[in-house]
Design a protein that fits this description.
Elements (H helix, E strand, L loop, with lengths): L15 H9 L4 E12 L21 E2 L10 H24 L4 E11 L4 E11 L11 E2 L4 H9 L2 E16 L2 H6 L10 H24 L4 E17 L2 E17 L13 E3 L4
Parallel strand pairs: 3-5
Antiparallel strand pairs: 1-4, 2-6, 3-4, 6-8, 7-8, 7-9
Helix pairs in contact: 1-3
Length: 273
Amino acid sequence: MERFQADGIRTSLLGVPGAVATTALGLPPVGEVMGCIVLHLGWQGYGCGAYGMTGNWSTATVTSGQSAGLTGYRPYVDALYRGYDTALERMVIEAQAMGADGVVGVRLSVTHQGQGNREFVALGTAVRSTGDHHLTRPFLTDRAGADVAKLLHAGWVPASIAIGISVAIRHDDYTTRAQANAWSQNVEVTGYTELVQHVRADARARFHDHAAKAGADVAIVSSMSLDIHSIEPSDGHRDHVAESIVIGGTLAQFHAGHTAPTRALSLLPLRRI
C-alpha cells in the first residue's frame, strides 16, 4: 500500500542529536518507514525425546537448530524468522520508494494478538545521500544516528540486521525435579543450566550464520533475550522450554584508518576461533 506523505514534510524517529549527526554526514532523514506482517502460528513442533509412564527418564536438551522431524521447535522458529524477515523486507521496500540509501535506528517488535496470531513490526528512519551516487538497496542498522556517524568516521559502514533465534526443550527428569524442589538446599539445577546454555549458544550460532551471509566483517550485538516457561503435555510429564533471541547489526569496513568511535561497542568476530 502506498504511503501518503504531505509535500515538504519529512517525518523521523531520530532524536535531535541523531538527526543532526546523520545530516552532517550528508545523510539527512527523508521519512520514517515501517514494515509489518501478521502471522498465525499453528503447528509449532514438539517433542523432548523423553518417554515412559513415570516421566523419570533423563533426556538431553533438544534445540531448534539441531531438531529434526517431529522433535523440537524448528517449525516455530522458522515462522519467527519469516515474521522478522518479512517485516524488514517490507520496510526496505518502503525506503526504496523514498529513494533512501539506508534506514537507521531500526526497531523490531512482536505483539501477541490472541488465538496464535502475532504482529511483527520493523520501524526505522530512512536517510538519503546528498551526493550523486546512491545505493540500489538501502543499508539497515539498529544503531542510533550519532553512532552511525561515529562508525562511518571510523571506516565502518552498516550493512544489515542480523537475528539469531533458538528454542530448546528439556524434560524435567528426576534429578532436575529434586534439585529444583522448594525444600532442597542451595544447589545448582543442572538440567536448567544445560537448557539455558544450549539455547543461548544455539541462538548465538544462528546470529553468527545470519551475519556471515550478509558478507559483513563484524556484527554488533544489540540485545540478547531469554524466556522460559514450563509445559505439562501429560500426567507425570513436565518439560521446560527456553526461547532465546539475539539481535544486532552487521558492519563492513571500507578503510583501515586510525580513527575509532568514541563510544564503546560490543563486537562479535565473524571468524570462528
